[in-house]
Amino acid sequence: MISQTIRRSRIVEVPEVHIVEKFIPKVSVQNRLRKVPKLEVHWVEKVVEVPHVKVVDKIVEVPQVREVQRFVPRVEIQEVVKHVPKYHIQKIEKFVEVPQIQVVEKFVEVPQIHEVVKYQEKLEVVDVPVQRLRYVPKPQLQLVEKLRAVPGPLEVLELQQQIPKPENKLQVLERIVPEPQVQEYVVETPVAVPSPPVEVPVEVPVFVDIPLLYPVEGKTIPLPKQKVYEQVVEVPV
């Protein structure tokens, strides 16, 4: 039996040494003189003003409110009972006789006119001056103030009303008076009927006292004043 050999390539890492040069600088120490100013502290006394709290009493007037009693009359309304009779209206049937018109024939003599010549005296009218006193009503003017926005000044004008005077003239006229005739007519006489009284309200003025304050001069009322004092207390810290 023949054995066959198969070759395969295989990569194998083989370590290699490489030389790397590294340059290291050589440190050389040199002394260099450098002058630095030296600070010297000197203590110097200095006076410094330190604020100090000083308590001073201050008097402050504090106003106080004081009640002053003032007696003002109080209005009390007192009712006075007044008995007034009250009327009740009650309807009662009442028979009233109503007049009826009854026609009755009546014979009346009718006068006839006859012409009769009658002589009458003729009167002539003569104007005779007669002095008469006649009272004429005088109009009364009443000025009423009325406020209106008028740019100019106001003028009050008095207007008088003229009343025409009627002229009285005497005139005589002839009048023929006929003979009186008797006529019948019905006269209605009114009779007063009592009616129930009616209550009429009457306004009665009521007086109410209203207190009024008037300033009084020359009167001073002393008021107590409260004073506050401050006290300093040391508190340990």
UniProtKB/TrEMBL annotation:
InterPro entries for this protein: IMCp
Protein name: ALVEOLIN2, related
Organism for this UniProt entry: Eimeria tenella
